[in-house]
Design goal:
Shape: rod-shaped
Radius of gyration: 33 Å
Mean pLDDT: 85
Order of helices and strands: HEEEEEEEEEEH
Helix content: 25-40%
Largest sheet: 7 strands, antiparallel
C-alpha cells in the first residue's frame, strides 16, 4: 500500500508537471502564431515599399511630351518630364482632317527639358506614307499623337486632350498603338 501511495503521489506530481508543461507549450505556440502574423505583416509592408520604390523609379525616368505643329508644318516639341524620351515619334492630323503628317522615319531623342526647334535643329513634318497611328477613344477627335520609350523599356503614347500618357511595359500584351509604333518606327520590337 505504501508503494501504491508513493506511486500515486509521484503520478500526481508528474501530471501537474505535464499540465504546466502543456500550458507553457500552449503559450509558446500562441507566441509563435503572433510572431508568424507579425512576420506576415512585415513581409506585406516590405512588398508595398518595393512597389512604391518601383513606381518612384518609373516616375523619375518618365518622359512627358508636349508638342504643337506650326502652320508651316514645323514641329515645336518639348520633354517636360524627368526622364529621357527615346525614339520619339510625333504625328498630326493637319488641315482637312484626313491627312496625317509625321517626321518618320527620323526618330528624336529628348533629354529632360529639351526642346525643338533649337538653333541648327528643325523638324519638318511630311505626309505619312504608312497607315495613320491608332488613336484612343477619348470622346473627342484626336488630331495629334506622340510615342516614345524610356531607358527602362516602357513605351508611351501621348494624345491630345489627355494629360496622362498610356504606358505599356513588357510582358503585357501589346496594344494596337505599340504594334503600330514597332512596325512603323525603326526601333527594335520588345520581346
Amino acid at each position: 500500500m505504501i508503494a501504491n501511495a508513493i506511486v500515486a503521489v509521484f503520478t500526481l506530481k508528474a501530471a501537474r508537471a505535464t499540465r504546466r508543461s502543456a500550458a507553457a507549450t500552449e503559450k509558446a505556440a500562441e507566441a509563435t502564431r503572433d510572431e508568424a502574423e507579425a512576420t506576415k505583416q512585415e513581409a506585406a509592408a516590405s512588398l508595398q515599399v518595393v512597389e512604391e520604390m518601383k513606381a518612384d523609379r518609373e516616375l523619375t525616368f518618365r518622359p512627358y511630351l508636349s508638342w504643337e505643329v506650326s502652320p508651316g508644318l514645323g514641329l515645336h516639341a518639348s520633354n517636360n518630364g524627368r526622364g529621357p524620351a527615346l525614339n520619339a515619334v510625333f504625328c498630326g492630323l493637319i488641315g482637312d482632317g484626313r491627312s496625317w503628317f509625321s517626321h518618320l522615319p527620323t526618330l528624336i531623342d529628348f533629354g529632360p527639358g529639351d526642346k525643338i526647334p533649337e538653333p541648327g535643329f528643325f523638324i519638318q513634318l511630311q505626309a505619312m506614307e504608312m497607315s495613320p497611328p491608332p488613336t484612343p477613344a477619348l470622346g473627342h477627335p484626336v488630331r495629334k499623337v506622340a510615342m516614345c520609350e524610356d531607358q527602362l523599356g516602357n513605351r508611351y503614347r501621348f494624345s491630345q486632350g489627355s494629360v496622362h500618357p498610356e504606358i505599356w511595359s513588357y510582358p503585357q500584351p501589346k496594344p494596337d498603338w505599340v504594334q503600330w509604333y514597332e512596325e512603323n518606327a525603326p526601333i527594335t520590337p520588345a520581346a
